[in-house]
Amino acid sequence: MDEHNSEGCPEHIATLSLDCAAQNEIRHRPLVYICSPFAGDTKHNLIRVLGYCRFAVSKGYIPLAPHLHYPQFMDDSDRKERELGLFFALVLLSKCDELWVFGHRVSNGMAREIRKAKKQGIPIRYFTEKCEEVQVT
Asked: What is the pTM assigned to this prediction?
């Protein structure tokens, strides 16, 4: 018995909420690293980064925002844990197709991410807090 549907997707995937065409579209979305402030007003900054991720999804990208993930189980106020979290984030950045920088303020952590992207030749795009793309020279 063929375990694939008429679109060529495995039958168990076809039964999920996304149809096969949507599955293929998602598989081909580029991975984008979301670079935005975290420290300071973390509650406000976390709300903003959620919006930036949603914006990336709406533009056909897969967002990666390590500052949403690592603070869940690592202490950002502990210097060693913060450095380790940033190290992890920079490793993940190297897997991304692009780096998107949001906001007018670039924190020290963001500056490190930008330097790493430049060093690795990862394209960088800049956006306002309202997700409007701007050119930076």
From this structure: 0.78
